[in-house]
Design a protein that fits this description.
four-stranded antiparallel beta sheet; globular; mainly beta; 10 strands
Length: 124
């Protein structure tokens, strides 16, 4: 499975961005799609995930109510709508996928496929 992330950019605090992750190849192996982020000098952090078969989603506490994950199964594409962005959301965002079905887990090691990162900068 190959993953292509896009949609990052520079936005003011309080603004919005929408990230895209397009999957190709053996997409039937990608049962859960997720987003992680890594800020400078910090560890990789789980952000959100979506399970394709039932639409169940998961979010890290700091983005609940501000970020929304969704997907288009026909296009094998996952979206991360980010609203009310804060400077602390600044990071490189990575799209990932796993063969497993557990959507609530935040362990990056459980993800099997990774895309390249897309930079999100929230600054005035």
């Amino acid at each position: 499975v190959q993953l292509q992330a896009s949609g990052g950019g520079l936005v003011h605090p309080g603004g919005s961005l929408r990230l895209f992750c397009a999957a190709s190849g053996r997409t039937s192996s990608a049962n859960v799609m997720g987003w992680f982020r890594q800020a400078p000098g910090k560890e990789l952090e789980f952000v959100s995930a979506l399970r394709w078969n039932d639409g169940r989603t998961a979010y890290t506490e700091s983005v609940k109510g501000r970020f929304t994950i969704s997907g288009d199964n026909a296009k094998s594409t996952v979206y991360l709508q980010m609203d009310s962005l804060k400077p602390e959301d600044t990071a490189v965002y990575f799209c990932a996928a796993k063969r497993g079905y557990y959507v609530d887990g935040d362990d990056a090691a459980r993800y099997d496929y990774w895309g390249q990162g897309t930079q999100v900068t929230v600054s005035s």
